[in-house]
Design a protein that fits this description.
CATH class of the largest domain: Alpha Beta
Distance between the termini: 60 Å
Mean pLDDT: 91
CATH superfamily of the largest domain: P-loop containing nucleotide triphosphate hydrolases
Bound molecules: guanosine-5'-diphosphate, magnesium ion, zinc ion
Low-confidence stretches: 192-198
Strand order of the largest sheet: 12-11-10-13-15-14
Strand content: 15-25%
Number of helices: 9
CATH architecture of the largest domain: 3-Layer(aba) Sandwich
Radius of gyration: 21 Å
Helix content: 25-40%
Order of helices and strands: EEEEEEEEEEHEHEHEHHEEHHHH
Number of strands: 15
Structural class: alpha/beta
CATH topology of the largest domain: Rossmann fold
Number of domains: 3
């Protein structure tokens, strides 16, 4: 007799057992009897799988849209990048997450939290990113001030939370539930203990959509990245001006202004000075690493 399998999604992994949710919303704890891998990688939270319901076993994994590795999560549709007046924003990190998201086909949304403390961060974010990211929201998670438009963005999608420790990701998650599901921690305590409270990925079925608190998005490294990929893809708002550059391999830094459309746009105030400065600095680092490695 031919087996019929049920499709489900892995939402949690507890020491070898996988909690899955079927399309009809039923939650089951399964094991993977055989070794199942997707392109050489182990099963992850977020994976769509076929299960044998009677056996409570995972039999197959379906193709992934994308995957983040630390912590492992698959099939993320969008990422909320959290920023706050405190801790002081790490703009290199924001740029990096945006770049990784675009490489992985994940839609980025900027969320400026703790606007009850100050609105200056929101202004800085708008100045630098309104040409880069379509959605920028201001919230105050502790005061339950979360715009309806942001809540609507979450519907029917798997959304990852990313950003520095202490920006309020867990507080936001708790606010969505209206009760505490995730541990929050004052910034001073975090520094003392030097730990991140979120180590394992878990998908939370909030009333507004599925959320995974990744934290570790911030740990992703862009090691061994080819400088030309960085030049072409990391700062997408440069692209229209790069078309005006006099030669194809222009890196927009070491060329003369007369030959470079991006530097001209910078002088005319068409692109953010801060974004450009970080671009130039990161490109220098990446180029050095690439030369050390490959000698070209
Ligand atoms: N003033 C203020 N503090 C907040 C807000 N959201 C979170 N916090 C505080 O920021 C600290 C870190 O929050 P947490 O959710 O643990 O941050 P996470 O590390 O990103 O998960 C906690 O002390 C929260 O109470 C907010 O909207 N306003
Ligand atoms: Mg947290
Ligand atoms: Zn150029």
């Amino acid at each position: 007799m031919k087996q019929t399998y049920t499709q489900a999604q892995i939402v949690k992994n507890i020491s070898g057992r996988y909690v899955v949710v079927t399309q009809s919303g039923q939650q089951l704890s399964c094991i993977a009897r055989k070794k199942i891998a997707y392109q050489g990688q182990k099963l992850m939270v977020g994976d769509y799988v076929q299960i044998d319901q009677q056996n409570q076993s995972i039999e197959n994994v379906l193709p992934r849209q994308n995957a983040l590795t630390r912590p492992p999560v698959a099939n993320i549709a969008q990422v909320l990048i959290f920023i706050a007046p405190q801790p002081e924003p790490d703009y290199f990190l924001i740029d990096k997450i945006l770049f990784i998201a675009s490489l992985q086909n994940i839609t980025p949304i900027l969320v400026v939290n703790k606007t009850d403390l100050s609105t200056q961060t929101l202004q800085h974010i708008q100045q630098q990113y309104s040409a880069v990211v379509r959605h920028i929201f201001a919230i105050s998670a502790t005061n339950n001030q979360i715009p309806q438009a942001l809540l609507s963005c979450l519907k029917g999608k798997l959304t990852a939370l990313a950003g520095q420790s202490g920006v309020g990701k867990s507080t936001f998650l708790n606010a969505l539930f209206g009760k505490q599901v995730a541990k929050t921690q004052a910034i001073s305590q975090k520094i003392e203990r030097g730990v991140n409270t979120t180590r394992h990925a878990e998908i939370y079925p909030t009333p507004y959509g599925q959320i995974v608190d990744t934290a570790g998005f911030s740990l992703l490294e862009l090691k061994h990245l080819a400088p030309n990929i960085f030049i072409q893809k990391a700062y997408p708002e440069f692209a229209p001006y790069a078309q005006q550059c006099k030669f194809a391999g222009c890196n927009h830094v070491t060329t003369s202004v007369q030959q470079c459309g991006v530097q001209q746009a910078l002088q005319q105030g068409l692109i953010s000075k801060e974004r450009y400065a970080r671009y130039a600095q990161t490109l220098e680092t990446i180029t050095k690493e690439w030369k050390n490695r490959y000698g070209t």
